[in-house]
TrEMBL record:
This is Nitroreductase domain-containing protein. PANTHER family: NAD(P)H NITROREDUCTASE YDJA-RELATED (PTHR43821). SUPFAM superfamilies: FMN-dependent nitroreductase-like. It comes from Cloacibacterium rupense. Gene3D superfamilies: NADH Oxidase. The keyword Flavoprotein applies. The keyword Nucleus does not apply. Belongs to the nitroreductase family.
Length: 169
């Protein structure tokens, strides 16, 4: 099979796969490293490599779930608060083998939109690598991400733009 056919097949089969469809099997560290390394090949102006990822597994993953629930409860007006959504955060995270936070480091060297676009391309590389390795994944950008800065120890020029859920399928 030609390389172009392989790439076309991977692109066309890429889908968001949600935690309810994960098998519960562990993602090998070598595969996780491959997924994260793929991000480094995303185009980025002036070689700023603006993406910042933090990996959460096991207890750290559960701490992330608790923090997201805390933020949701604190920032959601009582009349909009949904207990089901509150519980879904923990459920989805616990069904995921790995959680990765997606943040952007704004260098000041290029417009912010370019840094965000480069980060999105890095995540697309991760999506495609997950697809090639039969790992389900999806990018969520619920409002709680706007309040994760302190928990993630983000600097003033950094912003969380999503959560990346991963699990074997």
């Amino acid at each position: 099979m030609k390389k172009s056919e392989i790439v076309k097949e991977i692109i066309e089969s890429r889908r968001s796969v949600f935690p309810k469809d994960y098998s519960g099997e562990e993602i090998l560290d070598e595969i996780l490293d491959e997924i994260l390394n793929a991000a480094n090949f995303a185009p980025n102006h002036k070689r700023t490599k603006p993406w910042r990822f933090k990996v959460f597994k096991n207890d750290k993953k559960q701490n992330l779930a608790k923090e997201i629930q805390r933020i949701y409860k604190k920032t959601t007006p009582e009349h909009l608060f949904l207990e089901k959504k509150y519980l879904d955060f923990e459920d989805k995270i616990s069904k995921s083998n790995v959680m990765i936070t997606i943040s952007v480091n704004f260098s000041g060297l290029v417009p912010e939109w370019e840094e965000i676009a480069a980060t999105a391309m890095a995540v697309q590389n991760m999506y495609l690598t997950c697809t090639a390795n039969e790992i389900g994944c999806y990018w969520s950008s619920h409002n709680v991400i706007n309040h994760l800065g302190d928990f993630l120890n983000l600097e003033e020029n950094q912003r969380c733009i999503g959560l990346f859920y991963l699990g074997k399928i």
